[in-house]
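wait is this the right file?? whatever heres the structure
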């Protein structure tokens, strides 16, 4: 299920007011939610410079009196600097039982077998398409750690989330294929390797509601 369908499957039906945190420079998901008749506010310091649903601001800067029926963050939570206070703010902006819908990457879960598979597929892509590949799986892991240094890992995010939200849904998801292309790694292939315990899932999806509201 793609990101938009997953998010739509977890939100209350429209009309409903929803917030997307970290909409990115394209605002693709926010535009899809707008097209599905939601009342959308999509924030990000790098949001599209357009009137309407987009606002160029951080979650920390959102006015306290705004309330939403659902809040979504796709691959954004691990970037939030002060995660605990940011999640307090997210909880305060949610109506009771309003879902927090997350799609995330547990970058710290990349273990050796997963890195070896990632590297083999990266090399296959380099051989056919001339793209770049790390010299070894070991080097790929070192580069991966450097790219993510200072960002929150899975356990750290879960601890902060679980202190404030009650889980409604959770799934591990393929993620490495996003860095490759269909000629060497599809979502289905990565999922089957995860299910066979040959590699580890890096991606995850979570839905929770504020606890104690
Ligand atoms: C990896 S990108 C994901 C963008 C988009 N959701 C996607 O999936 O393509 C993370 C985004 O979070 C935004 N971001 C980082 N800190 C933020 C904050 N405190 N409040 C709102 N957005 C933030 C960044 O500007 C960036 O666009």
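ok assuming it is, sequence goes like this
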């Amino acid at each position: 299920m793609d990101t938009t369908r997953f998010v739509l499957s977890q939100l209350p039906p429209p009309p409903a007011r929803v917030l997307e945190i970290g909409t990115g420079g394209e605002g693709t998901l926010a535009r899809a939610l707008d097209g599905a008749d939601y009342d959308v506010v999509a924030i990000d310091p790098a949001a599209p410079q357009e009137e309407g649903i987009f606002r160029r601001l951080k979650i920390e800067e959102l006015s306290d009196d705004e309330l939403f029926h659902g809040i979504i963050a796709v691959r954004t939570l691990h970037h939030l600097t002060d995660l605990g206070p940011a999640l307090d703010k997210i909880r305060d902006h949610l109506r009771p039982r309003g879902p927090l819908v997350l799609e995330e990457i547990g970058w710290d879960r990349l273990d050796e077998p997963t890195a070896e598979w990632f590297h083999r597929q990266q090399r296959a892509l380099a051989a056919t398409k001339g793209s770049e590949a790390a010299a070894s799986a070991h080097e790929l892991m070192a580069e991966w750690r450097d790219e993510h240094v200072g960002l929150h890992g899975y356990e750290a995010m879960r601890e902060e989330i679980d202190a404030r939200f009650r889980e409604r849904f959770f799934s591990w998801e393929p993620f490495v294929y996003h860095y490759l292309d269909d000629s060497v790694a599809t979502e289905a292939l990565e999922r089957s390797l995860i299910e066979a315990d040959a590699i580890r899932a890096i991606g995850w999806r979570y839905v929770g509601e504020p606890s104690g509201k």
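Residues 21-24, 43-46, 58-60, 74-76, 79-80 surround S-adenosylmethionine (CB under 6 Å). so i think its the right one actually
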